[in-house]
Protein backbone atom coordinates (compact mmCIF):
# COMPACT_ATOMS: atom_id res chain seq x y z
CA UNK A 1 0.00 0.00 0.00
CA UNK A 2 1.30 3.40 -0.99
CA UNK A 3 1.65 5.81 1.91
CA UNK A 4 0.41 9.36 1.33
CA UNK A 5 0.88 10.85 4.80
CA UNK A 6 2.46 9.66 8.03
CA UNK A 7 1.76 11.56 11.25
CA UNK A 8 3.87 10.62 14.29
CA UNK A 9 3.36 11.83 17.87
CA UNK A 10 2.11 15.20 16.74
CA UNK A 11 1.52 17.85 19.41
CA UNK A 12 0.26 21.39 19.28
CA UNK A 13 0.11 23.67 22.29
CA UNK A 14 -1.33 27.14 21.65
CA UNK A 15 -0.12 29.99 23.85
CA UNK A 16 1.65 27.56 26.21
CA UNK A 17 -1.68 26.33 27.60
CA UNK A 18 -4.16 24.99 25.06
CA UNK A 19 -3.02 21.47 24.24
CA UNK A 20 -5.02 21.25 20.99
CA UNK A 21 -3.36 18.11 19.55
CA UNK A 22 -1.98 15.42 21.87
CA UNK A 23 0.45 12.83 20.58
CA UNK A 24 -1.58 12.03 17.49
CA UNK A 25 -0.24 9.34 15.14
CA UNK A 26 -1.85 7.77 12.09
CA UNK A 27 -1.12 6.93 8.48
CA UNK A 28 -2.99 7.67 5.30
CA UNK A 29 -2.80 5.17 2.47
CA UNK A 30 -3.63 5.78 -1.15
CA UNK A 31 -7.18 5.19 -2.30
CA UNK A 32 -9.00 5.39 1.04
CA UNK A 33 -11.41 7.99 2.39
CA UNK A 34 -10.41 9.13 5.88
CA UNK A 35 -12.52 11.04 8.33
CA UNK A 36 -11.17 12.92 11.31
CA UNK A 37 -14.17 12.83 13.60
CA UNK A 38 -14.59 14.77 16.81
CA UNK A 39 -16.72 17.39 18.52
CA UNK A 40 -15.98 21.08 18.03
CA UNK A 41 -12.64 22.07 19.52
CA UNK A 42 -11.18 18.56 19.39
CA UNK A 43 -8.19 19.54 17.25
CA UNK A 44 -9.33 18.54 13.74
CA UNK A 45 -8.61 21.83 11.99
CA UNK A 46 -5.35 22.24 13.89
CA UNK A 47 -4.18 18.81 12.72
CA UNK A 48 -5.06 19.65 9.11
CA UNK A 49 -3.40 23.07 9.45
CA UNK A 50 -0.16 21.49 10.64
CA UNK A 51 0.15 18.98 7.80
CA UNK A 52 -0.70 21.75 5.31
CA UNK A 53 2.06 23.88 6.78
CA UNK A 54 -0.16 26.77 7.88
CA UNK A 55 0.03 26.00 11.62
CA UNK A 56 3.35 25.37 13.36
CA UNK A 57 3.57 22.10 15.24
CA UNK A 58 4.90 22.08 18.81
CA UNK A 59 6.48 18.62 18.56
CA UNK A 60 6.24 15.37 16.66
CA UNK A 61 6.44 14.87 12.96
CA UNK A 62 4.61 14.37 9.70
CA UNK A 63 5.84 13.11 6.38
CA UNK A 64 4.21 13.45 2.98
CA UNK A 65 4.77 10.67 0.41
CA UNK A 66 7.31 8.80 2.56
CA UNK A 67 9.35 11.96 2.98
CA UNK A 68 10.74 11.74 -0.54
CA UNK A 69 9.92 15.36 -1.35
CA UNK A 70 10.46 18.62 0.54
CA UNK A 71 7.16 19.78 2.12
CA UNK A 72 6.81 22.64 -0.36
CA UNK A 73 6.94 20.27 -3.36
CA UNK A 74 4.86 17.60 -1.64
CA UNK A 75 2.06 20.11 -1.02
CA UNK A 76 1.80 20.71 -4.78
CA UNK A 77 0.30 17.21 -4.92
CA UNK A 78 -2.26 18.04 -2.24
CA UNK A 79 -5.59 19.77 -2.88
CA UNK A 80 -7.07 21.39 0.21
CA UNK A 81 -10.06 23.48 1.23
CA UNK A 82 -9.70 24.53 4.84
CA UNK A 83 -11.44 27.88 4.72
CA UNK A 84 -14.61 29.24 3.14
CA UNK A 85 -14.17 29.35 -0.64
CA UNK A 86 -12.75 32.68 -1.73
CA UNK A 87 -13.35 33.63 -5.36
CA UNK A 88 -13.96 36.90 -7.19
CA UNK A 89 -17.72 37.59 -6.93
CA UNK A 90 -18.04 39.43 -10.25
CA UNK A 91 -16.13 36.84 -12.27
CA UNK A 92 -17.78 33.72 -13.67
CA UNK A 93 -17.05 30.21 -12.44
CA UNK A 94 -14.91 29.56 -15.51
CA UNK A 95 -12.99 32.84 -15.18
CA UNK A 96 -12.27 32.17 -11.52
CA UNK A 97 -10.89 28.72 -12.27
CA UNK A 98 -8.84 30.00 -15.22
CA UNK A 99 -7.25 32.48 -12.87
CA UNK A 100 -6.29 29.65 -10.52
CA UNK A 101 -4.81 27.78 -13.51
CA UNK A 102 -2.75 30.82 -14.44
CA UNK A 103 -1.38 31.23 -10.92
CA UNK A 104 -0.59 27.53 -10.51
CA UNK A 105 0.61 27.02 -14.12
CA UNK A 106 -2.04 24.46 -14.98
CA UNK A 107 -3.42 24.09 -18.57
CA UNK A 108 -6.85 25.75 -19.06
CA UNK A 109 -8.19 22.46 -20.41
CA UNK A 110 -8.57 21.32 -16.81
CA UNK A 111 -11.23 23.97 -16.11
CA UNK A 112 -14.06 22.34 -18.09
CA UNK A 113 -13.05 18.87 -16.97
CA UNK A 114 -13.37 19.81 -13.29
CA UNK A 115 -16.50 21.94 -13.75
CA UNK A 116 -18.08 18.91 -15.37
CA UNK A 117 -16.97 16.64 -12.51
CA UNK A 118 -18.56 18.84 -9.84
CA UNK A 119 -21.76 19.35 -11.86
CA UNK A 120 -21.26 23.05 -12.62
CA UNK A 121 -20.51 22.93 -16.35
CA UNK A 122 -23.96 24.36 -17.17
CA UNK A 123 -23.29 27.28 -14.83
CA UNK A 124 -19.76 28.04 -15.96
CA UNK A 125 -20.75 31.46 -17.33
CA UNK A 126 -22.62 32.49 -14.17
CA UNK A 127 -20.97 34.95 -11.83
CA UNK A 128 -19.67 33.50 -8.57
CA UNK A 129 -21.89 35.81 -6.51
CA UNK A 130 -25.02 34.20 -7.97
CA UNK A 131 -24.02 30.77 -6.64
CA UNK A 132 -25.66 29.05 -3.69
CA UNK A 133 -23.40 28.04 -0.80
CA UNK A 134 -23.42 24.45 -2.07
CA UNK A 135 -22.38 25.55 -5.56
CA UNK A 136 -19.61 27.72 -4.09
CA UNK A 137 -18.35 24.71 -2.20
CA UNK A 138 -18.45 22.56 -5.34
CA UNK A 139 -16.53 25.24 -7.23
CA UNK A 140 -13.94 25.24 -4.45
CA UNK A 141 -13.63 21.46 -4.83
CA UNK A 142 -13.20 21.87 -8.61
CA UNK A 143 -10.50 24.43 -7.94
CA UNK A 144 -8.66 22.18 -5.50
CA UNK A 145 -8.74 19.37 -8.08
CA UNK A 146 -7.40 21.40 -11.03
CA UNK A 147 -3.89 20.00 -10.68
CA UNK A 148 -5.12 16.41 -10.19
CA UNK A 149 -3.81 16.11 -6.62
CA UNK A 150 -3.02 12.75 -5.01
CA UNK A 151 -5.15 13.69 -2.02
CA UNK A 152 -8.05 16.06 -1.41
CA UNK A 153 -8.37 17.56 2.08
CA UNK A 154 -11.67 19.06 3.21
CA UNK A 155 -12.47 20.70 6.55
CA UNK A 156 -16.16 20.34 7.48
CA UNK A 157 -17.19 20.19 3.81
CA UNK A 158 -20.96 20.33 4.42
CA UNK A 159 -21.12 22.98 7.16
CA UNK A 160 -23.91 25.46 6.60
CA UNK A 161 -25.43 23.64 3.62
CA UNK A 162 -29.07 22.67 3.20
CA UNK A 163 -29.95 18.95 3.01
CA UNK A 164 -29.82 18.90 -0.79
CA UNK A 165 -26.43 20.66 -0.80
CA UNK A 166 -25.13 18.23 1.81
CA UNK A 167 -26.26 15.28 -0.29
CA UNK A 168 -24.58 16.70 -3.43
CA UNK A 169 -21.27 17.28 -1.66
CA UNK A 170 -21.27 13.80 -0.10
CA UNK A 171 -22.06 12.19 -3.47
CA UNK A 172 -19.33 14.26 -5.08
CA UNK A 173 -16.75 13.18 -2.49
CA UNK A 174 -17.67 9.54 -3.14
CA UNK A 175 -17.38 10.11 -6.90
CA UNK A 176 -13.93 11.70 -6.54
CA UNK A 177 -12.81 8.85 -4.30
CA UNK A 178 -14.11 6.27 -6.78
CA UNK A 179 -11.80 7.80 -9.39
CA UNK A 180 -8.79 7.03 -7.20
CA UNK A 181 -8.18 10.28 -5.32
CA UNK A 182 -7.40 9.75 -1.64
CA UNK A 183 -9.56 11.90 0.65
CA UNK A 184 -9.08 13.27 4.15
CA UNK A 185 -11.97 15.18 5.63
CA UNK A 186 -12.65 16.61 9.06
CA UNK A 187 -16.18 16.48 10.41
CA UNK A 188 -18.02 16.73 13.70
CA UNK A 189 -20.87 14.76 12.11
CA UNK A 190 -20.86 11.09 12.83
CA UNK A 191 -23.31 10.20 10.08
CA UNK A 192 -21.18 12.07 7.55
CA UNK A 193 -18.16 9.93 8.40
CA UNK A 194 -20.31 6.80 8.46
CA UNK A 195 -21.75 7.60 5.00
CA UNK A 196 -18.64 8.84 3.23
CA UNK A 197 -15.50 7.42 4.85
CA UNK A 198 -13.81 4.03 4.83
CA UNK A 199 -11.49 4.93 7.72
CA UNK A 200 -11.81 7.12 10.77
CA UNK A 201 -9.63 8.86 13.33
CA UNK A 202 -11.65 9.85 16.40
CA UNK A 203 -10.36 12.87 18.35
CA UNK A 204 -11.53 14.25 21.68
CA UNK A 205 -9.76 17.18 23.36
CA UNK A 206 -6.91 16.63 20.92
CA UNK A 207 -6.48 13.01 21.92
CA UNK A 208 -6.86 10.14 19.48
CA UNK A 209 -9.43 7.69 20.85
CA UNK A 210 -9.72 5.35 17.87
CA UNK A 211 -8.26 4.93 14.45
CA UNK A 212 -9.07 2.23 11.97
CA UNK A 213 -11.74 1.21 9.54
CA UNK A 214 -15.29 2.47 9.95
CA UNK A 215 -16.41 -1.17 9.60
CA UNK A 216 -14.00 -2.16 12.37
CA UNK A 217 -15.52 0.44 14.60
CA UNK A 218 -18.96 -0.99 13.81
CA UNK A 219 -18.06 -4.63 14.32
CA UNK A 220 -17.26 -4.68 17.99
CA UNK A 221 -18.30 -7.69 20.02
CA UNK A 222 -21.61 -6.23 21.03
CA UNK A 223 -23.46 -6.76 24.30
CA UNK A 224 -26.29 -8.79 25.83
CA UNK A 225 -29.44 -7.75 27.62
CA UNK A 226 -30.28 -10.36 30.24
CA UNK A 227 -32.87 -10.86 32.97
CA UNK A 228 -33.58 -13.68 35.42
CA UNK A 229 -35.55 -13.90 38.66
CA UNK A 230 -32.28 -13.77 40.60
CA UNK A 231 -30.07 -11.14 39.02
CA UNK A 232 -27.55 -11.21 41.88
CA UNK A 233 -26.78 -14.86 41.24
CA UNK A 234 -26.85 -14.20 37.48
CA UNK A 235 -24.32 -11.39 37.86
CA UNK A 236 -21.90 -13.50 39.93
CA UNK A 237 -22.08 -16.33 37.40
CA UNK A 238 -21.55 -13.99 34.44
CA UNK A 239 -18.45 -12.43 35.97
CA UNK A 240 -16.82 -15.89 36.03
CA UNK A 241 -17.15 -16.19 32.25
CA UNK A 242 -13.86 -15.41 30.44
CA UNK A 243 -15.53 -13.54 27.53
CA UNK A 244 -17.41 -11.09 29.72
CA UNK A 245 -15.89 -7.71 30.35
CA UNK A 246 -18.37 -5.82 32.51
CA UNK A 247 -21.99 -5.65 33.63
CA UNK A 248 -24.30 -2.72 34.15
CA UNK A 249 -27.73 -2.81 35.75
CA UNK A 250 -30.24 -0.95 33.65
CA UNK A 251 -33.96 -0.27 33.56
CA UNK A 252 -36.58 -2.96 34.43
CA UNK A 253 -34.01 -5.13 36.23
CA UNK A 254 -32.18 -5.86 33.02
CA UNK A 255 -28.45 -6.52 33.04
CA UNK A 256 -26.36 -5.11 30.20
CA UNK A 257 -23.43 -7.44 29.68
CA UNK A 258 -20.43 -6.16 27.72
CA UNK A 259 -18.00 -8.52 26.03
CA UNK A 260 -14.27 -8.63 25.50
CA UNK A 261 -14.36 -11.65 23.16
CA UNK A 262 -16.99 -12.90 20.79
CA UNK A 263 -19.77 -14.88 22.42
CA UNK A 264 -22.97 -16.05 20.77
CA UNK A 265 -26.38 -15.99 22.44
CA UNK A 266 -26.80 -19.80 22.34
CA UNK A 267 -23.36 -20.35 23.95
CA UNK A 268 -24.15 -17.94 26.77
CA UNK A 269 -27.61 -19.44 27.28
CA UNK A 270 -26.15 -22.97 27.50
CA UNK A 271 -23.43 -21.84 29.93
CA UNK A 272 -25.99 -20.21 32.23
CA UNK A 273 -28.42 -23.11 32.01
CA UNK A 274 -25.65 -25.50 33.04
CA UNK A 275 -25.06 -23.29 36.08
CA UNK A 276 -28.75 -23.60 36.95
CA UNK A 277 -29.89 -20.23 35.69
CA UNK A 278 -33.03 -19.90 33.60
CA UNK A 279 -33.28 -16.61 31.75
CA UNK A 280 -36.47 -14.61 31.30
CA UNK A 281 -34.90 -12.36 28.72
CA UNK A 282 -31.90 -12.73 26.38
CA UNK A 283 -31.09 -10.37 23.50
CA UNK A 284 -27.78 -9.77 21.77
CA UNK A 285 -27.23 -6.23 20.52
CA UNK A 286 -24.63 -4.28 18.65
CA UNK A 287 -23.92 -0.64 19.22
CA UNK A 288 -24.48 1.71 16.33
CA UNK A 289 -21.47 3.81 15.39
CA UNK A 290 -23.26 6.67 17.07
CA UNK A 291 -23.46 4.88 20.42
CA UNK A 292 -19.83 3.85 20.09
CA UNK A 293 -18.79 7.39 19.27
CA UNK A 294 -20.66 8.67 22.31
CA UNK A 295 -19.08 5.93 24.44
CA UNK A 296 -15.63 6.79 23.10
CA UNK A 297 -16.02 10.50 23.57
CA UNK A 298 -17.63 10.22 27.03
CA UNK A 299 -15.04 8.04 28.67
CA UNK A 300 -12.38 9.70 30.78
P1 LIG B 1 -11.84 21.55 15.69
O1 LIG B 1 -11.41 21.85 14.29
O2 LIG B 1 -11.87 20.08 16.02
O3 LIG B 1 -13.13 22.21 16.04
P2 LIG B 1 -9.56 23.20 16.45
O4 LIG B 1 -8.38 22.47 15.91
O5 LIG B 1 -10.07 24.35 15.68
O6 LIG B 1 -10.75 22.15 16.70
O7 LIG B 1 -9.24 23.69 17.92
C1 LIG B 1 -8.67 22.86 18.90
C2 LIG B 1 -8.40 23.69 20.17
O8 LIG B 1 -7.36 24.63 19.89
C3 LIG B 1 -9.58 24.50 20.65
O9 LIG B 1 -9.55 24.52 22.04
C4 LIG B 1 -9.34 25.87 20.06
O10 LIG B 1 -9.93 26.87 20.86
C5 LIG B 1 -7.80 25.95 20.13
N1 LIG B 1 -7.25 26.82 19.07
C6 LIG B 1 -7.38 26.63 17.72
N2 LIG B 1 -6.71 27.58 17.04
C7 LIG B 1 -6.15 28.41 17.96
C8 LIG B 1 -5.33 29.58 17.90
N3 LIG B 1 -4.95 30.09 16.73
N4 LIG B 1 -4.94 30.14 19.07
C9 LIG B 1 -5.30 29.62 20.27
N5 LIG B 1 -6.07 28.51 20.40
C10 LIG B 1 -6.49 27.91 19.27
MG1 LIG C 1 -12.50 22.87 12.82
UniProtKB/TrEMBL annotation:
InterPro entries per the record? AAA+_ATPase, ABC_transporter-like_ATP-bd, ABC_transporter-like_CS, P-loop_NTPase
To which protein family does this belong? Belongs to the ABC transporter superfamily.
Q: What are the coiled-coil residue ranges? A: none
Name the keywords, alphabetized.
Answer: ATP-binding, Nucleotide-binding, Transport
Q: Which PROSITE patterns match?
A: ABC_TRANSPORTER_1, ABC_TRANSPORTER_2
Q: Which residue ranges does the record assign to the ABC transporter domain?
A: 5-230
Would you say which domain of life the source belongs to? Bacteria
Q: What is this protein called?
A: ATP-binding cassette domain-containing protein
Enumerate the GO terms in the molecular function aspect.
ATP binding
Instruction: State the species of origin.
Output: Flavobacterium jejuense
